[in-house]
Design a protein that fits this description.
Elements lengths: L7 E7 L6 H16 L4 E7 L5 H9 L6 E4 L4 E2 L19 E5 L4 H12 L4 E6 L5 H11 L4 E6 L5 H8 L5 E6 L14 H4 L1
Parallel strand pairs: 1-2, 2-3, 5-6, 5-8, 6-7
Antiparallel strand pairs: 3-4
């Protein structure tokens, strides 16, 4: 019987649950670490405002076994899964331009086909390299479903490319980020280069 408590790593963020993408990324990394390194107790605490610091201190000192906390000046919350009724409405794309990054990849093409089949009027696909003949044929097939399809060469890591990508007529109403590069490693084998 192991009577020694697991070492604890507490990650305190600010507004991860209310829109700060950097804080949300820390939560995502913390969740992955908790799954990959079960010998380490990882506690994620998100504070909503500076006045929450006394409650954050109480959470950090507590022995309650929760791995995620949202703390404000007046409340302390933990996430829970609850059953809700499935919405009855079917997805109907809004009128406007739908941008799909990774538009040359299998996932990007699949999402574009889904949107076209559901009646999206304008689909803008994006990727880091020029489309091949096979890509152009796939884009033509999407157009045959009734969507106006265009392709923009853009790297989502380059601000000017993103600005150009979002200049669309009609205006952008949705963005689906389907781009990705597979370079996976367990959390214990990540280095600074992997995180950049």
């Amino acid at each position: 019987l192991n009577t020694h408590p697991r070492p604890r790593l507490s990650l305190v963020t600010r507004q991860a649950w209310s829109g700060d993408p950097r804080a949300a990324a820390i939560w995502g990394l913390g969740r992955c670490a908790a799954l990959e390194v079960p010998d380490l107790e990882i506690r994620l605490v998100d504070m909503e405002e500076e006045g929450a610091l006394p409650n954050v201190a109480r959470v950090l000192a507590s022995s309650i076994e929760e791995d995620g906390w949202r703390v404000s000046e007046t409340t302390v919350k933990v996430p829970r899964l609850i059953d809700i009724p499935l919405p009855s409405a079917q997805f109907q794309p809004r009128h406007g331009t739908w941008v799909i990054t990774g538009g040359r990849g299998a996932l990007g093409r699949h999402v574009a086909k889904f949107l076209a089949e559901k009646g999206a009027s304008h689909i803008r696909l994006a990727g880091r390299s020029e489309p091949s003949q096979e890509d152009l044929a796939a884009f033509e097939a999407l157009s045959s479903l009734g969507a106006c399809v265009d392709y923009v060469t853009a790297d989502v890591h380059v601000e000017k490319d993103v600005e150009n990508l979002l200049k669309a007529d009609p205006p952008v109403v949705g963005i689906i980020h389907a781009a990705g590069v597979l370079d996976d490693h367990s959390i214990l084998h990540l280095n600074r280069e992997h995180l950049n």
